[in-house]
């Protein structure tokens, strides 16, 4: 065990820091879920990142990456969040689909999709859930009918993050018409502007349109857009879910910066705070550190050839609960001003906590609800029998 | 940067685990409890023969010169087995403390030599602990009376037993000032050694608590696979699964903190102290939740003397305040949080 950074790792940190200091926009970008303008501003930022080869540092160089290891990825993320750089509008692509494409894609598919993904040229949405297939994802009914070199897609997807403004979606479809449950499913990509695709925004709890319904009516895509073998869709989705819940989706730096801001907020209002708040603030710091240390531990194991297992599920539960707790503590500090939105003169930048709180409530739901994660932990980690 | 334990570190822990698997089953615990003896001589002899009592003492002072990170998995294994004998406090805390005192004062070398040879154990008082553990079987006692610290042999102290609910905790207070001493010095002059002992004590208590927590979950899992209700094992019901999974999540997020704390312990700075304290607070909480969960999953059996969970519940209760309770350790975390830089690049801060 050696918990010190090598000279190379320290030099890398300084390189990232210098680039970000020179390039991160001085004013925050408008939300990518509220307007086309905000979305495009974030795409522009992705382009800039990719010009510096910072799009996805762990990817191979031929796809715009730097072929770095997961410890360096963590260092990059630490610096990224430290610099207050914009949220990654293409997270569904770069963090979820990207690693899956790397594992299951053909060389032609990788060449076609990964570079455009890393550069922000093509921004991705996820199209898995359906009205009748949420936690029970294997109940998907949307179909992919093979006709020659094409698939014809039909169905109704829902809760697709970023779909309102994104360019592409990766969806789970029933490609074998007689199949049931986990069998006969395929993972297929489709452009969101293809004929027959209709995207309907769903206003969220915070009023923004971060997710949408997607209606597909005889949407024709080339068979080239299928990832992996026909019928292998469930297996591939589970691998993607592993990445999603595992490491990439929520890097520890995000929560360490939130904990730092929470400490600053507390110090500002210390005199007015209930004594219990102090313990909650310390807990936020400890939880953010525990999450970071756990991810460093997992990263070390993966670098040495290990595979991500049920810790994908333990991580997801931990960060989603931590995120809510931190924001609740911040709201308790803000007291009467907690309910104010950004437009209120008495709120200002502090409204960020309320916005973050609303978003945190989605954490235990998306990427597989925490109840499903607990089933996974109980069955795969603890060996309890399936119900 | 590499978070993995070395093969050597793992092998040391596996050797202890193997020994405990042979000699520290729940039936062994019950046999010792019923005998009323202080220790199982066969098990203790086997542990002593492993030579770990000098693990954390410098090689030039007759020890193995290992680091806390080399011993932390051993402490975890002892917690998981519910080991009654004081391997962790003796080797992890008291003997290195004695070595510090011997080095500083030049006295007591023969007691240290005997302790390193495994001929005697060392029991240590500490300002943070209300009691001295295992003082009745120790050949050397580091005692505190008012503002003085003493190294004494057992004949110099009158011990008062303070019975614990944990049948294997042997706790004592002193009835009077020691009548004679091999070493005596003002407490203030021993402060640095006592601080270092506290760090080790808290760290290894945290590791034991993580082991206890895992054992409690393991017992709950085993029972819930066997116990049938409504025609199915109770472990197939989500209500039971979620209780156990929730406890397991707590354990998963305290282990890396304990291991990072072990690596940082030699730094002896505000960051290492905070990390040790973080580990201690969260390990106590994980063990508390895991043990209560295990009682609940066992149903009425969980409340019985017959099921083994209570051994771990009681040890968890004891260790939660041993080497500093949550309030004490939270204050050390607060010193770090409110007085030093925070943020995403501060996961492994330099002293």
Automatic annotation (TrEMBL), chain A:
SUPFAM superfamilies xref list: Acyl-CoA dehydrogenase C-terminal domain-like (SSF47203), Acyl-CoA dehydrogenase NM domain-like (SSF56645)
Keywords of this entry: FAD, Flavoprotein, Oxidoreductase
Residues annotated as transmembrane: none
Molecular-function GO term, any one: flavin adenine dinucleotide binding
Record flagged with keyword rRNA processing: no
InterPro entries given in the database record: Acyl-CoA_Oxase/DH_mid-dom, Acyl-CoA_Oxase/DH_mid-dom_sf, AcylCo_DH-like_C, AcylCo_DH/oxidase_C, AcylCoA_DH/ox_N, AcylCoA_DH/ox_N_sf, AcylCoA_DH/oxidase_NM_dom_sf, Mycobact_Acyl-CoA_DH
Gene Ontology CC annotations of this record: plasma membrane
Pfam families named among the record's database cross-references: Acyl-CoA_dh_1, Acyl-CoA_dh_M, Acyl-CoA_dh_N
Cofactors (names): FAD
Acyl-CoA dehydrogenase/oxidase C-terminal domain location: 231-382
Coiled coil residues, start to end: none
Signal sequence interval, chain numbering: none
Annotated ranges, domain Acyl-CoA dehydrogenase/oxidase N-terminal: 7-121
Residue ranges occupied by any Acyl-CoA oxidase/dehydrogenase middle domain in the UniProt entry: 125-219
UniProt family annotation: Belongs to the acyl-CoA dehydrogenase family.
This protein's name: Acyl-CoA dehydrogenase
Source organism: Nitratireductor aestuarii
From TrEMBL, chain B:
Domain Acyl-CoA dehydrogenase/oxidase C-terminal: 196-337
InterPro entries recorded: AcylCo_DH-like_C, AcylCo_DH/oxidase_C, AcylCoA_DH/ox_N, AcylCoA_DH/ox_N_sf, AcylCoA_DH/oxidase_NM_dom_sf
GO molecular function terms listed in the Swiss-Prot or TrEMBL record: acyl-CoA dehydrogenase activity; flavin adenine dinucleotide binding
Signal peptide positions (record): none
Matching Pfam families: Acyl-CoA_dh_1 (PF00441), Acyl-CoA_dh_N (PF02771)
Cofactor(s) this protein cannot do without: FAD
Sequence ranges assigned to domain Acyl-CoA dehydrogenase/oxidase N-terminal in this UniProt record: 6-84
Keyword Nucleus: no
Domain of life: Bacteria
UniProt keyword list: FAD, Flavoprotein, Oxidoreductase
Family to which the UniProt record says this protein belongs: Belongs to the acyl-CoA dehydrogenase family.
PANTHER family with a match to the protein in the record: ACYL-COA DEHYDROGENASE (PTHR43884), ACYL-COA DEHYDROGENASE FADE28 (PTHR43884:SF20)
Protein name, per record: Acyl-CoA dehydrogenase
Source organism: Nitratireductor aestuarii
């Amino acid at each position: 065990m050696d918990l010190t950074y090598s000279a190379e790792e320290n030099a890398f940190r300084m390189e990232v820091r210098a680039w970000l200091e020179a390039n991160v926009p001085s004013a925050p970008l408008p939300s990518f879920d509220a307007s086309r303008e905000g979305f495009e501003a974030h795409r522009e930022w992705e382009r800039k990142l990719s010009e510096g080869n910072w799009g996805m540092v762990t990817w191979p160089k031929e796809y715009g990456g730097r072929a770095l290891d997961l410890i360096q990825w963590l260092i990059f993320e630490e610096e990224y969040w430290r610099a207050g750089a914009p949220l990654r509008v293409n997270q569904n692509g770069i963090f979820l689909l990207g690693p899956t494409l790397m594992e299951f894609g053909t060389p032609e598919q990788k060449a076609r999709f990964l570079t455009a993904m890393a550069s922000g040229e093509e921004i991705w949405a996820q199209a898995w859930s359906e009205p009748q297939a949420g936690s029970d994802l294997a109940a998907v009914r949307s179909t992919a009918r093979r006709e020659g070199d094409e698939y014809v897609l039909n169905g109704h997807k829902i809760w697709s993050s970023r779909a309102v403004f994104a360019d592409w979606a990766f969806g789970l479809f029933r490609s074998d018409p007689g199949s049931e449950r986990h069998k006969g499913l395929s993972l297929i990509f489709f452009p969101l502007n293809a004929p027959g695709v209709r995207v309907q925004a769903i206003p969220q709890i915070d009023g923004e349109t971060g997710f949408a319904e997607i209606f597909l009516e005889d949407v024709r895509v080339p068979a080239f857009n299928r990832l992996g073998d026909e019928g292998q869709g469930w297996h591939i989705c589970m691998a993607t879910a592993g990445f999603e819940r595992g490491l990439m989706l929520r890097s520890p730096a995000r929560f360490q910066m939130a904990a730092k801001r929470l400490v600053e907020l507390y110090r500002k209002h210390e005199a007015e705070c209930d004594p219990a708040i102090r313990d909650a603030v310390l807990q936020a710091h400890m939880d953010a550190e525990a999450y970071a240390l756990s991810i460093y531990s997992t990263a070390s194991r993966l670098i040495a050839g290990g595979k991500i297992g049920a810790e994908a599920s333990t991580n997801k539960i931990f960060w989603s609960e931590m995120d809510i707790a931190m924001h609740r503590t911040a709201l308790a500090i803000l007291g009467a001003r907690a309910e104010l939105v950004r437009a209120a003169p008495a709120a200002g930048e502090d409204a960020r906590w309320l916005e973050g709180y609303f978003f945190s409530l989605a954490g235990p739901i998306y990427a597989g609800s925490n109840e499903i994660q607990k089933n996974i932990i109980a069955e795969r980690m603890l060996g309890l029998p399936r119900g | 940067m590499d978070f993995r334990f070395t093969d050597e570190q793992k092998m040391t822990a596996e050797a202890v685990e193997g020994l405990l698997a042979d000699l520290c089953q729940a039936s062994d615990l019950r046999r010792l409890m019923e005998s009323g003896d202080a220790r199982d001589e066969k098990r203790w002899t086997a542990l002593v023969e492993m030579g770990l009592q000098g693990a954390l003492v410098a090689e030039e002072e007759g020890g193995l010169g290992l680091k806390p990170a080399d011993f932390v998995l051993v402490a975890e294994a002892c917690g998981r087995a519910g080991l009654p004998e004081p391997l962790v406090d003796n080797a992890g805390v008291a003997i290195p403390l004695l070595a510090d005192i011997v080095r500083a004062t030049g006295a007591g070398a023969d007691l240290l030599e005997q302790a390193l040879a495994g001929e005697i154990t060392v029991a240590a008082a500490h300002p943070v602990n209300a009691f001295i553990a295992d003082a009745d079987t120790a050949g050397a006692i580091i005692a505190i009376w008012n503002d003085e610290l003493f190294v004494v042999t057992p004949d110099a102290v009158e011990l008062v037993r303070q019975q614990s609910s944990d049948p294997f905790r042997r706790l004592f207070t002193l009835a009077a000032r020691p009548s004679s001493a091999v070493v005596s010095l003002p407490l203030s002059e021993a402060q640095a050694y006592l601080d270092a002992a506290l760090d080790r004590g808290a760290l290894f208590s945290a590791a034991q608590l993580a082991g206890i927590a895992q054992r409690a979950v393991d017992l709950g899992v085993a029972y819930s696979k066997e116990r049938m209700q409504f025609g199915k094992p109770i472990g197939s019901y989500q209500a039971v699964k979620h209780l156990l999974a929730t406890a397991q999540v707590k354990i998963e997020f305290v282990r890396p903190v304990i291991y990072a704390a072990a690596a940082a312990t030699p730094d002896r700075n505000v960051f290492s102290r905070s990390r040790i304290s973080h580990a201690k607070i969260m390990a106590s909480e994980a063990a508390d939740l895991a043990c209560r969960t295990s009682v609940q999953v066992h149903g009425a059996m969980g409340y019985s003397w017959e099921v083994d969970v209570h051994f771990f519940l009681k040890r968890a209760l004891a260790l939660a305040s041993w080497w500093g309770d949550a309030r004490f350790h939270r204050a050390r975390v607060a010193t770090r949080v409110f007085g030093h830089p925070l943020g995403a690049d501060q996961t492994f801060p330099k002293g």
